[in-house]
Amino acid sequence: MKKSFVMSLVCAGLLCFTAQTSFAQDVVDADDAAPQTSQVVQNTSSSAPQASGGAGSQFYQVLFGSGSVGFILWMALFGALVAYIYLAIDCAILIQTDKIMPQALIANVEASMQEGDVVKALQFCENDPTPLAHILSAGFSHVEEGFEVIDEAIASAADVEVEKIMQRLTWISVVGNAAPMLGLLGTVQGMIMAFANLAGGTPDVGALAINISQALWTTAGGLICAIPCVLTYYGFRNKASNIVLKMTIMTTELIKDLRNVEVVSE
């Protein structure tokens, strides 16, 4: 009985010692694993700002990390965008019916022609800086030379004024054609830098990503500038064509009475 009791105590003591040893080992293992876990958490937290940067930080890295050539290309794209905005506002202000053929001038010239006073009509045109006034001034200045000369003078003046109007639109077309070329040049430059990075042996993943981003961002920048330019150009060109057509019809109506008008010199 005593022996069995002693053996029971010994077994219980061994079990307690084993359990205690196992618990201590688990604590030590947990303590050893804790710094790794915290390091993983720390690494995750340190990488969080990089992931949260988004497209804005990527564009910033591309803008200032693509070399001097890439920076010059981006400045050229920004310049093209500024030029487009300026030209679009300029055309929106100037390519209007009232700016090309004002109704006040038409009314004054019609009234003068009904009175048969070509000199008065010429004075109204000379005091007005609009394209219609310049065209009519060219015709009224040759009133003593016959209607054929008047018609030729008006046709020549109309060609000049229409060309002046279209030249403003041509610059928008130039910007629209140049912007995608700048974007394509940036794409080529980015791919050259990417392959140069790969050719160096062990590639720098960060630099390679910036090079590829340079290629894609410049393409997107060129298209963002070119698409509005193309749409704006064709929109203003159609509007200018309609105004020029109306101006041609109005000019024909205003000078048709010159066939029978006699100028009385003072």
Description of the structure:
The protein is mainly alpha-helical and 266 residues long. It folds into two domains: 1-30; 58-259, no CATH class. The chain contains nine helices and no strands. It has helices spanning 2-52, 54-65, 67-94, 97-100, 103-115, 118-126, 131-140, 147-199, 205-255. α3 runs parallel beside α9 (205-255), α6 (118-126) runs antiparallel to α7 and α7 runs antiparallel to α8. The protein is rod-shaped, with a radius of gyration of 41 Å. The relative contact order is 0.11.
Summarize the topology.
Layout: H1 2-52, H2 54-65, H3 67-94, H4 97-100, H5 103-115, H6 118-126, H7 131-140, H8 147-199, H9 205-255
Helix pairs in contact: 2-3, 2-9, 3-8, 3-9, 5-6, 6-7, 7-8, 7-9, 8-9
